[in-house]
Amino acid sequence: MAGGAFGADLLPTQAVDAGQPDSAFDAAFHDRAESISRGGLGRAPTTGSEAVSIAQTPESSPAPVQESRSQPEPVEVSADCADYSGNRQIGCSLLAEFGYGVDQMASLDALWTRESGWNHLAQNPSTGAYGIPQALPGEKMASAGDDWRTNPATQIRWGLSYIQQRYGSPDAAWAFFQANGWY
User: Fold this and answer.
1) Angle formed at CA 83 by CA 180 and CA 45, multiple of 5 degrees
2) Is the bond preceding 137 in cis, omega lying within 30 degrees of 0?
3) Buried b (16+ CB within 10 A) or exposed e, 44-72
């Protein structure tokens, strides 16, 4: 597990070789991820007998912000996504906007279940990573909309754009996560 996705403006746009970090930024993040895996601060399991709920406390809740004056772009729910609900259904429905088929949903679901449990208010108190894709810093998601703190669709659009630019697909991002413990 790691703090999550980073803004594409800091990272190359080609797909990543899962072997070695491709920048000093990635190397520093990789070191932090290894520290977490050795018992440092990390997210609790979200499945199984050790699972805990992701609860918002006053200390971890995001500060209130003024919402955008523009209305969020509506998400048309795809019939192919009927097996999902809530934020997962939004994520499934938005795959097509980025040129992906529903076949990518299993990887996206696994990735973001590990990162945030699909909780659009999830915040890592040690890193500040925020939202469904665990953007670090969360403010990077403002490039997808002024309502990035509260709108799951905005966060998902930003996260899918990040995955597309950084890894090429949710399948590739999940494979990288499995090999490295972060994405």
Assistant:
1) 35
2) yes
3) eebeeeeeeebeeeeeeeeeeeeeeeeeb
Indicate the angle between helix axes 152-166 and 105-116, nearest 10 degrees.
110
pLDDT in tens, 14-73: 333 334 444 444 444 444 444 444 444 333 333 443 333 334 434 444 444 444 444 566
Q: CA nearest 158: which of 176, 177, 137?
A: 137
Rounded to a whole number of angstroms, the distance between the first and last alpha carbons of the chain is 8
What is the tens place of the pLDDT at every residue in 134-155? Answer: 999 999 999 999 999 999 999 9
**Phi, psi dihedral angles at 112 (to 5 degrees):** -80, -20
- Mention every residue, 6+ apart, whose C-beta is less than 8 A from residue 151: 72, 120, 145
| Separation CA 44–CA 53 (nearest Å) | 8
- Whole-number Å distance between alpha carbons of 39 and 52: 17
